[in-house]
Amino acid sequence: MESESPDSDKLIHSSTTACEQKHSRGVHNLVRLLSEPSQWLQMLSDKLNPTFILGVFLVYGLSQGFAGSYFKVVSDYYWKDVQKLQPSAVQVLIGFYYIPWVMKPVWGILTDVFPVRGYRRRPYFVAAGVVGAVSALTLALTGRLSAAVALGCMVGITAGEAIADVTIDACIARNSIEFRALAADMQSLCGVCSSAGSLVGYLVSGLFVHHLGPQGALGVLALPPALLIVLGFVIYELRTSVPRLEQKRAVDKVNVAVGGMFRTMKYPQVWKPSLFMYLSLALSISTHEGQFYWYTDPKVGPAFSQEFVGMIYAIGSLASMVGVLIYHKFLKDYPFRNLLFFAQLLYAISGMLDLIFILRWNLTLGIPDSFFVICEQCVSHIVSKLRWMPMIVLSTKLCPLGIEGTFFALLMCIDSLGSLSSKGGGGLVLHAFHVTRTDFTNLWLVILLRNLLRVATLSLIFLVPMGEQTDTFIPSDILTKNVVVVKSVEDDTIELVPVNQKLDV
What's the CA gap between 165 and 419, in Å, rounded? Predict the structure, then answer.
């Protein structure tokens, strides 16, 4: 038998080596892909502050993400099965949830100019936790309440979330000014945390409603506020040089903050995009309660179970995370106007999926209800995130240094007013079209009207600036004036400082 030639051995060895190298590169790429999120978090932690990252996780991930999504499902069942209200009435009542969010400028002024024992952020995290925990426990443990008292407790829960949100947003706005290149990264982190928390909240909400009932399940909402109290004691913050402000000095700072806020809002670069953000939310009237009642109706609707409703929203939350990742990877370098135009267009188109579902055209096409609603939730949540993320980034770009907490709170107040208008308008439309607990005949007309209003919003895109997402949109003299005036009232210190400025505590 003839032995193999040396050339043949070299060929086999070369082929084996190539395969090993290809495999090695594949493993290396996989490891790099898996390690990229941790490296990204480490980078943010190094350049900002580890406790800032912790605060984002607890506020956006737990308080807003988990508690917000869990509260949405459980409160829907509470109004429907315990209070037994009509969908149009619930739609209007839900609008009251936004009152604490509308008051965000008030919380912003408090955190900016009224420190407690020299701290401007810590005490407000504690206060937010106390308000939220007491409200949740009252709802869960005091028996059946009147609708008015129950609404007051639910507003208390959202008030705790709003106060904590303002406090961490002030830190985000400050860091977005000092680290402009990281503004989009910070919003991506907030979006990922919020979506991940929402995913968990939606997944477990249906199970808790099924086993504890809607009222008992509300007791779980006391846990996130309790952790906010802990956050108030551990978050890194430098104590101000003056432990207690005199009354006159505090009033002076309020006047400075309010004056700077109105001076900034007068600029077209600020009020035009703010108006667009409000109208884009207000014109898209909410039909959530009508659809929720229809989802769970055993006669004319698909009769989804409590667990499946939670799973639907959970999958939507997972899709929101995908939307955040798409924005972070591919869209954060596009101009604001172009990005928001196409996002709004997709938002209007995706709304037609609700119309198809309500008219049951999916069954005509042979698509089961469960599969279709999951697909619809994925598409709508991805598009909603692609539309929302650039709006938030734009909001941080409009904040002047020195009153960043107050002004960002004002912008978020405008958004909350838009959401309140959306909820209230949706409730009025549901009532006008006679959509009730058992009659959904005209629900499709309500959804069609909502979609037409979304299309109409495209005509307002000229209000959005053409600039890049790394650009500065407000005149530099505003920043200088606000900093000089605020510093003249009190020598402030930034509460969450870069790593190279950290002190041991």
Answer: 16
- Selected residue with higher pLDDT from 306 and 113: 306
Burial class of 165 by CB neighbour count within 10 A (0 to 12, 13 to 18, 19+): buried
Contact 447, 287 (CB under 8 A): yes
The model's pLDDT over 253-298, given as tens digits with 9 standing for 90+, comes to 667 767 777 777 888 888 888 899 999 999 999 998 899 999 988 8
Q: How far apart are alpha carbons 481 and 339 in whole angstroms?
A: 32
Whole-angstrom distance, CA of residue 353 vs CA of residue 359: 10
Query: How far apart are alpha carbons 286 and 270 in whole angstroms?
Result: 26
Q: Is the dihedral of CA 111, 112, 114, 119 positive or negative?
A: positive
CB 154 within 8 A of CB 139: yes
CB-based contacts of 349: which residues, under 8 Å, 6+ apart? none
Number of C-beta neighbours around residue 130 at 10 A:
17
- 3-state secondary structure (DSSP) of residue 490: coil
pLDDT at 501: 37
Residue 79: burial class (beta carbons within 10 Å; 0-12, 13-18, 19+)? buried
Tell me the DSSP string of 339-395. Answer: HHHHHHHHHHHHTHHHHHHHTTHHHHTT--HHHHHHHHHHHHHHHHHHHHHHHHHHH
Inform me whether the pLDDT recorded for 198 exceeds 50: yes
Could you tell me which residues are beta bridge partners of residue 119?
116
Q: Which domains can be identified in the chain, with CATH numbers? A: 47-239+250-466 (1.20.1250.20)
Pick from 336, 209, 229: which is nearest to 280 by CA? 336
Phi and psi at residue 119, to the nearest 5°? -110, 135
87/311 Cα distance (integer angstroms): 22
Contact indicator for 381, 319 with CB cutoff of 8 Å: yes
Among 187-191, 220-224, 251-255, name the one with the lowest average pLDDT: 251-255
Burial group, residue 176, by CB count within 10 angstroms (0-12, 13-18, 19+): buried
Whether the Cβ atoms of residue 493 and residue 235 lie closer than 8 Å to each other: no
CB-count exposure of residue 437 (10 Å: 0-12, 13-18, 19+):
middle
CA-nearest of 255, 98, 219, 71 to 165 is: 98
Residues 6+ apart with CB under 8 A from 213: 82
Q: Which amino acid is at 431?
A: H
DSSP label at residue 133: H
49 near 497, Cβ under 8 Å? Answer: yes
